[in-house]
Amino acid sequence: MKTRTTFKFGQILLFAFGALLLSFQYSCKDDLTEMHNEAALEHSNTNAYARSFSGDSIVLKNPYSVEIMKTALEQLRAKNPKQTAGFEVRPSHLYLKFNPKNEDEVGLLKQDSTIHYFDYRLDAEYAEGFLENRAPDRDSIPVYYTAVPVGKNLPAVEHEVLSELYIPEQDPYFSDIDDIERYEVTGKLANKTDLFNNLLYLAYELTGNEEDLLTDDSTPQAKWIFGKKWYPSGRIQVKDDILDVVPVTGAQVLMRQWFTVAQGITDGNGYFSTSSVRGKAKYVIQWERYNYSVRNGSIFQAEMKGPNVKQQAWYPVIDGGEDEYHALIHQAAHDFYYGYRFGLTSPPMNNHIYNFGRQSQIKIAARKTAPWGVPSSYSHIRSELTFGLSAQIHIKAYGRLSDMVYGTTIHELSHALHSIIDRSAYNDICQDSFLSFNSAVKNRNRRLLESWPTTVETLMTLERYKRIRGYAVYRSTGSNNFQNRTISAENHYTSGGYDMIDGHNQNGMYGVGYPADRVTGYTASQLEQALKGSRNWYQWRDKIKNNYSNPTSIYLDELFANWPD
């Protein structure tokens, strides 16, 4: 698994490349629906509108706008003046569009975990596959849409209010209404429950969205709506090439109903549940947690679209394609950030202050192809050169076996971990790995640069797949925890780090040509701490030797000498 790393010291040399790269960066237009908005809005003014459309997208008429809700209330009040006395529609939420200009501003948005952002409109529908395959335009920072309660503190990012909203389902005034399985809408009000259901239905009818509420057995003469609260739930699993069907843990499942979003996080067995909704709502998996975001490509948020249903649980088994790819990348990132990681420091954390400054959410670009043969990579410099427009991590393992997708993600996050342990040393290692005119210096630095993430990759991939008897990293290449590679086969991505932890001497097992490894008993945490101040392969060795008491340390020189400069 080859990994390219860029570096801070070479910014001047790379600036021209960064400028060139910028010329190829694009982003979503402010309105994805621009080409179809006018026709869509004209169409939606009629109650015959049934969301059938040609083209890529259509903006829906908004039933939750304050204007529509007031109109609905006025019509109800005309027939029920006493029952509506004292009740008024006032803005409860704001529908917002944020226009971040750079990664720092995107980072400000993602610092508040209570706000769920979408890089597409919440009041629109899109043709199947359009969002997943949309072509970006101009730059690499999308606009973001969300709805927040009135009065909520907002991040200091340019934004506009698209609409003032009144969401009766979120109004405490209606918190004690009767929970009725099916409610017949008649326009007659006797109590608060009648007011809630008739107001909601009339707003949906005025905007041509009543099908979201009507039950299947409704008729023009008897309009029944699905009025009972229900709690979305289910289980998310993925088809793993090695483990077969397994749970996806830590996935963020959102239940979206227009502007209202209920959230659930899958547990260790893949199960989730959210807070209650009424009527029809859409399941969405957003492959994002507070510390990282998986991108579909490098720009747009990776999501898996679920069904738009009423009172139905969801039990998908993700099998193949981009959804499986995103699920595996998410699983690796989640395990590294929130799971068991052998006592290692977390990869760069969102909104955390390091000695080089504040870190924002890590972007992980899930690439389907590797252009020009460029492999998976991590680079904090790539983001700096492109003014925050590019993801720090690019995974290019689409179509490979599941363990390789998982391991590749761990590998690149381990580079990111190395970069925060000692940013100055890390930059120097990268500089000499690629710019030094001395081949020996380049080799010894690149060996440290890549042997460290190979160590973590091996440990965590073995941990995930340990229940498979005799599992080897990677099965598809016939490697046995990287231990049956000859010395001549790999000079950079070595087994040296893992050799200091395991109890196997591959030279004794496989014979001449394999590394002599009589070192054992070190921990991953010890090897990580020894990275501090280490600027080449041999400095890492010496820090391990000097900082930790281990009876096999007498063999460290022998182990590190296996790979020539």
Secondary-structure topology with pairs:
Elements: E1 4-5, H1 11-23, H2 37-44, E2 57-59, H3 66-79, E3 93-98, H4 103-109, E4 124-126, H5 130-133, E5 144-149, E6 159-165, E7 182-185, H6 192-206, E8 223-226, E9 229-230, E10 233-235, E11 237-240, E12 244-247, E13 252-257, E14 260-265, E15 271-273, E16 277-278, E17 281-286, E18 288-289, E19 292-296, E20 300-301, E21 303-309, E22 317-318, H7 321-338, E23 352-354, E24 357-359, E25 362-366, E26 377-378, H8 380-385, E27 393-395, H9 402-421, H10 423-435, H11 439-464, H12 496-499, H13 506-510, H14 524-529, H15 537-547, H16 556-560
Parallel strand pairs: 1-26, 11-22, 19-25, 25-27
Antiparallel strand pairs: 2-4, 3-5, 3-6, 7-8, 9-16, 10-15, 11-12, 13-14, 13-17, 17-21, 18-19, 19-20, 23-24, 26-27
Helix pairs in contact: 3-6, 7-9, 9-10, 9-11, 10-11
Features:
disordered N terminus, elongated, seven-stranded mixed β-sheet, 565 residues, 19% strand, alpha+beta, four-stranded antiparallel β-sheet, 16 helices, 27 strands
